[in-house]
Specification:
- It is globular and about 35 Å long.
- By secondary structure, it is mainly beta.
- Strands 1-2-3-4-5-6-8-9 form an 8-stranded antiparallel beta barrel.
Length: 163
């Protein structure tokens, strides 16, 4: 695993620091806010009902495979995954470990979220619509991740459930 924990700590500090900037709405009326030179991007379509329906046929039981979580500008986790697949109503959950990280994927008609906890450094990301393919007991997932509506990286899972 690449050094994910120090990178996540740095990212969380950066997010906290940028959250403390002045709001242009607080500027005096005779001052215009500075124009942003940052490119604007259209947010990816969030995962939802179609993705939940795609994962519904996965069998419950032990899960094994590979997890790749890439955090933009921070690093990546690329490791074998072992855990459990389960269903709670219309929600499919895949939870387990990859290297030292604990990963929980929850996909429901309301959206998809992936939580990561690596020795106390945590991250929660929403997943976009993407590739959510199920063949038998195998899940092949590739989707963008976002945090606070901003792109944050990507998730790739190749997981076998129920076996």
């Amino acid at each position: 695993m690449r050094p994910l924990r120090p990178v996540l700590v740095a990212a969380l500090l950066l997010l906290a620091a940028t959250g403390c900037t002045d709001d242009p709405a607080d500027a005096p009326l005779d001052e215009a806010p500075a124009a942003s030179s940052a490119p604007t991007t259209t947010p990816a379509q969030p995962a939802g009902e179609a993705e939940a329906d795609a994962l519904a046929p996965l069998p419950a039981g032990p899960a094994t495979g590979t997890a790749v979580l890439v955090y933009s500008g921070l690093g990546e986790l690329r490791a074998p995954f072992a855990g459990q697949c389960s269903h709670d109503g219309s929600t499919t959950r895949i939870e387990g470990s990859a290297d030292t990280a604990r990963i929980v994927l929850a996909v429901s008609p309301e959206g998809a979220r992936i939580d990561l906890d690596d020795d106390g450094v945590t991250s929660t990301s929403d997943l976009a619509a993407g590739r959510y393919e199920v063949g038998g007991r195998h899940l092949s997932l590739r989707a963008g991740m976002s945090q606070g509506g901003e792109p944050a990286g990507s998730a790739e899972l190749e997981i076998d459930c129920g076996g």
